[in-house]
Amino acid sequence: MDVIGIIPARYSSTRFEGKVLADIAGKPMIQHVWERAKQASSLDDLIIACDDEKVAKAAQGFGAKVITTSKGHASGSDRICEVINPLDVKVIVNIQGDEPLIHPSMIDAVARALLDNPSVSMATVMRAIEDEKDISDPNVVKVVIDKNNFALYFSRSPIPCHAEGSEINLPIYFKHIGLYSYTKDFLFTYKNLPVSYLEKVERLEQLRVLEEGFRIKVIETKHDTIGVDTPEDLEKVKLYLEKEKNNA
Hints:
The structure is a single chain. It is built from nine helices and eleven strands. The chain has helices spanning 29-38, 53-61, 76-84, 104-115, 133-136, 184-191, 197-202, 207-211, 231-247; strands spanning 3-9, 23-24, 27-28, 45-50, 65-68, 91-94, 122-128, 142-145, 151-155, 174-183, 217-220. A seven-stranded mixed β-sheet has the order 5-4-1-6-10-7-11, with helices on both faces. Strands 2-3 form a two-stranded antiparallel sheet. A two-stranded antiparallel sheet has the order 8-9.
């Protein structure tokens, strides 16, 4: 098997308990994620990895393949490792269970980044920021890249800093979208990396990869997403889908 998509779906959430089952237009949020991921042409299989029987039952109800994992995992990547450990697969795509607007082309892009280049072991996604408020919003993670589209740094702060007197009038800021692909070997390497200093400072797990000297390929997309961390985010998603439906 070349590519498998895993949707880690933890029921408990500090800021929004049970958010993966929150109703959006008559469907649980996790179903929206799964339906969009199913449209990705690169996936040979798609599994929801959950830690709660309520999530498993809901997912089985709309036809998803489900594996119930340990409740003790500290992160989604740990949950994914439990699922893929016995599987013969080249590339794993980590599809967040709280990203109901994920576009299938993003999944295909991060999968192809690894399949087409054996030297790349991890990839993710970015999008140019259009709303100026997002630049200073610490909940919108920014990323800067090198000339070969590998990540230089991720931050909750505005990066790059637009210095006074800079010859660049309007720098482009990029929002990081938390969709990841990994080779199977690198996923287990990643899982075992120690928590890093910058990761603790920024509260961004991907920074441990850069601090250990590994590279992350970053693919630009024209599609936007809204990650759901709070009930307010959920309302934003509902509004977005309602506008999308009215404009169809």
